[in-house]
Amino acid sequence: MCQLLGMNCATPTDITFSFRGFSQRAGITSDHCDGFGIAFFEDKACRLFVDNQSAVESPIAELIRNYPIKSRNVIAHIRKATQGKINLENSHPFSRELWGRQWIFAHNGDLHDFDPALSGRFTPVGNTDSERAFCYLLDQLVNKFGYTEPSLDQVFDLLTDVSPRIAEHGTFNFCLSNGQALFSYAITKLHWLVREYPFKPAQLIDIDVEVDFSQVTTADDRVAVITTEPLTQNEAWTAFAPGEMILFQYGKAIRHQMTHVERLIREAKDPSLKRVTKADQY
């Protein structure tokens, strides 16, 4: 299973602390070694770094661990491949332009028999189920709203309608951002927390590093962190419920919505129907 890391902030913030722990899972504390990527938004555009090397070995990842790029919205991904070759075009996050903004998407999971008709406006570069799902989501946004940019609430409502339909094909956990906010959806594992004033120390799980955030923040700072597995051992992380969508803006969760996934109901009634793949092994 791939792992996700997202950050949404009230003020531009660097992700070096969280990424230092997260990247250990790419070959030291876990085996998500099939590439990594990270995107930092700056208004409508973003800095996107991807590599088909693991986040433990990649010189690009070493730069990210040590160079504090500040952003209000960040999405990172470490890959454990289930579909598609281990190469650059299959490395998350994926990027596309829509309504004059870059959109960034990263997914963990494994979608079976998912081959939707695409309009051609958004075309996969690689051969992953994840990139197909991203192109399909963007197609649905254009089909619904045309070329007039909708509000974040309208995007959220469409995502809560379309995402459970994709999730009928398998595990579908994702982070999506257009630089204004961050949308997160979970079918299996995803956790989140908000750090805000008064800040406290945090201790990483995957490496012996601690930061006292009260010494490096102000009262105006507020940071929401979203990740597959909790990154710290002394903070209270909240697990997403299966089928939950959350919209994060200005460092806080501003909307929650539960979605209805028929497959999960069938599997709860008859566990023999549940298909466990490499994508479900963390």
Report on the structure:
The protein contains five helices and 15 strands. The protein has 282 residues and is an alpha+beta fold. It has one domain: Aminohydrolase, N-terminal nucleophile (Ntn) domain (Glutamine Phosphoribosylpyrophosphate, subunit 1, domain 1). Strands 3-2-4-1-12-9-13 form a seven-stranded antiparallel beta sheet. Strands 5-6-7-8-14-15 form a six-stranded antiparallel beta sheet, with helices on one face. Strands 10-11 form a two-stranded antiparallel ribbon. Strand 7 and strand 8 form a beta hairpin. Helix 3 packs across helix 4. The mean pLDDT is 93.
Descriptive labels:
six-stranded antiparallel β-sheet, alpha+beta, globular, seven-stranded antiparallel β-sheet, single chain, 32% strand, 282 residues, Glutamine Phosphoribosylpyrophosphate, subunit 1, domain 1
Quick rundown:
The protein is an alpha+beta fold and 282 residues long.
Question: Helices, strands, pairings?
Answer:
Layout: E1 3-14, H1 16-22, E2 36-42, E3 45-51, H2 59-66, E4 70-78, E5 94-98, E6 101-108, H3 129-145, H4 152-167, E7 173-177, E8 182-186, E9 191-196, E10 201-203, E11 210-212, E12 222-227, E13 238-239, E14 244-249, E15 252-258, H5 262-269
Antiparallel strand pairs: 1-4, 1-12, 2-3, 2-4, 5-6, 6-7, 7-8, 8-14, 9-12, 9-13, 10-11, 14-15
Strand content: 25-35%
Main sheet record: 7 strands, antiparallel
User: Helicity level, as a percent range?
Assistant: 10-25%
- Give me the Rg, rounded: 18 Å
Q: What is the assigned CATH homologous superfamily?
A: Aminohydrolase, N-terminal nucleophile (Ntn) domain
How are the strands of the biggest sheet laid out side by side? 3-2-4-1-12-9-13
Number of domains: 1
